[in-house]
Recover the amino acids of this structure.
């Protein structure tokens, strides 16, 4: 995700089964990646998309544009940042991984730089949504039905079933507007980047492309993966864009002020059939919050306070962050306003908010 303090940062892990246990060599890995990226047809990934420079870094060093450079505080998370007047992709790397997968991840981050270059305006306010998004069993039950429809449509497209998908989404837009619009914004920003990531794999490793789609479909149809909602929205968005592209349903390779997964609902009838109910959704919602409460209670009991006062929260690893009753669970790092400058502390934390996005205390997990 692009580096924007107001929306948080992203450090999505690479799955364990893709890791290769070998000593890390940033320079060698950089040139292996560059060879793959240089052979890509970017025009087929997205209209007007062109490669950006990229950097690999760890806790001690950073390799960028063919040379080692001093590592600064700008290099944090897996994202796109503005560096020396241009947008670049960066990736935190401490052990070697599958090079095809890593190349597709770098392209994902390059695409975020491409979005920023084109003044993309549809970024979600992730910190606001973290606090405000309501995990309603009714909303999530309908959403799970949508996800199963996406699975069915990818396998065997049927116009009537596609219209049902639109009806359900239109219903949620009308009855759960904040939640739907947030999901749609993540689908727009991260879903399109994941769509480009998939198309990268299609070029360089078709078998891995097919495996990735299979895994995405499996994830979106597993009810427990709706928590937290942001993570699954990457895959949902990517699969919807694949569906739209394959069947030439909607043009979407352009920039505007409205998300595609909202604009495509225009003219869609309001869903009037009986709404889908998943009785287990109530238990899943309760479990999600009870598990969050246990993490918070454990951190407060340990009483390892690393920050106390009144500080403006600037950013965190919003990828898998959780919120519960005035507390945020954040992994990897936390960024906050300290006087006239920003400060970063690394680790996993429980953040106690006094009001809005003001930090009162931070406890190490």
């Amino acid at each position: 995700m692009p580096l924007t303090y107001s929306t948080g940062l992203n450090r999505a892990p690479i799955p364990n089964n893709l890791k290769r246990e070998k000593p890390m060599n940033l320079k060698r890995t950089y040139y292996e990646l560059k060879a793959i990226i240089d052979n890509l047809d970017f025009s087929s990934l997205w209209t007007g998309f062109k490669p950006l420079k990229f950097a690999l870094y760890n806790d001690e060093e950073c390799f960028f544009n063919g040379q080692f450079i001093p590592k600064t505080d700008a290099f944090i998370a897996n994202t796109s940042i503005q560096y020396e007047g241009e947008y670049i992709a960066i990736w935190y790397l401490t052990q070697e991984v599958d090079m095809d997968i890593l190349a597709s991840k770098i392209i994902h981050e390059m695409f975020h730089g491409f979005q920023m270059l084109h003044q993309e305006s549809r970024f979600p306010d992730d910190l606001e949504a973290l606090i405000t998004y309501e995990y309603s069993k009714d909303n999530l039950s309908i959403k799970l039905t949508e996800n199963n429809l996406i699975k069915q449509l990818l396998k065997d497209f049927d116009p009537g079933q596609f219209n049902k998908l639109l009806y359900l989404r239109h219903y949620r837009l009308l009855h759960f507007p904040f939640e739907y619009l947030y999901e749609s914004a993540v689908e727009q920003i991260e879903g399109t980047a994941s769509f480009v990531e998939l198309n990268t794999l299609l070029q360089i490793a078709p078998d891995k492309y097919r495996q990735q789609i299979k895994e995405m479909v499996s994830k979106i149809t597993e009810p427990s993966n709706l928590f937290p909602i942001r993570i699954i929205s990457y895959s949902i968005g990517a699969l919807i864009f694949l569906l739209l592209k394959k069947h030439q349903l909607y043009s979407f390779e352009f920039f505007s002020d409205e998300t595609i997964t909202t604009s495509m609902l225009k003219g869609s009838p309001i869903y009037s059939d009986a709404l889908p109910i998943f009785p287990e959704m109530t238990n899943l919602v309760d479990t999600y919050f009870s598990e969050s409460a246990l993490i918070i209670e454990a951190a407060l009991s340990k009483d390892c306070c690393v920050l106390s006062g009144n500080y403006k929260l600037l950013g965190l690893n919003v990828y898998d962050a959780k919120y519960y009753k005035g507390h945020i669970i954040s992994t990897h790092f936390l960024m906050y306003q300290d006087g006239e400058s920003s400060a970063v502390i690394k680790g996993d934390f429980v953040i106690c908010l006094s009001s809005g996005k003001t930090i009162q205390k931070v406890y190490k997990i």
